[in-house]
Design a protein that fits this description.
Largest sheet: 5 strands, mixed
Strand content: 15-25%
Strand order of the largest sheet: 3-6-7-8-9
Structural class: alpha+beta
Helix content: 25-40%
Order of helices and strands: HHEEHEEEHEEHEE
Distance between the termini: 16 Å
Radius of gyration: 17 Å
Shape: globular
Number of helices: 5
Length: 185
């Protein structure tokens, strides 16, 4: 499983760099700081643009690689939310989440988490076995690291891995997956 994740991270890194930076294109501090305009008209850094594209490519690769052998045992970007009344974490149906997003009901997702890859018991995304998150540092020579939730988030100042582990009650620490470093905690 982890071999597939690392392979997909490497492939996504290479393919996106080739497509967006040209043949043999590599990231550098200057390239990563460049300002670009995204599809929504927002100004972002090239690092953010590349990271989003690499995440999408890596997730597509994982879907293709694991669907035939492990269908029902993993979820890609599943949404989880701790129920304020019961204190229990619940899995949010992807169709319901998509409908909320279409309807502009973003507030219903406040406090939700969406790890990149979750391994779980067959057909049960609440019986979490492992949690993985892709990280594509820019430049690639930077070490991968967990993001910290921003001010205003219900998880402000907490690192992603701690929140993932807490909400999903995982016995295994969440792991980072990056093209150069492979899988690490």
């Amino acid at each position: 499983m982890e071999r597939v994740l690392v392979e997909c991270a490497k492939r996504a890194n290479l393919e996106v760099n080739e497509r967006m930076l040209g043949p043999g294109g590599r990231t550098s501090p200057a390239v990563c700081r460049e300002k670009v305009v995204d599809a929504n008209g927002r100004e972002i850094t090239r690092a953010m643009q590349l990271g989003e594209a690499k995440h999408a490519a890596a997730l597509e690769c994982v879907q293709q690689a694991l669907d035939a052998t492990d269908a029902g045992r993993f979820s890609l970007e599943p949404r989880y939310l701790r129920d304020a009344k019961t204190g229990r974490t619940r899995w949010l149906d992807p169709k319901e989440v998509a409908q909320w997003l279409r309807d502009g009901l973003f507030h219903l997702l406040t406090g939700s988490i969406a790890p990149d890859v979750v391994l779980h018991a067959l057909g049960n995304p609440l019986k979490v076995q492992r949690i993985y998150d892709f990280k594509f540092p820019c430049p690639v020579t930077n070490p991968p690291q967990w993001d910290t939730y921003a001010e205003g988030s219900p998880f402000a100042d907490k690192p992603q891995n701690a929140v993932y582990q807490e909400l999903l009650s995982s016995e295994q620490a969440p792991r980072l997956v990056s093209p150069n470093m492979g899988v690490e905690r």
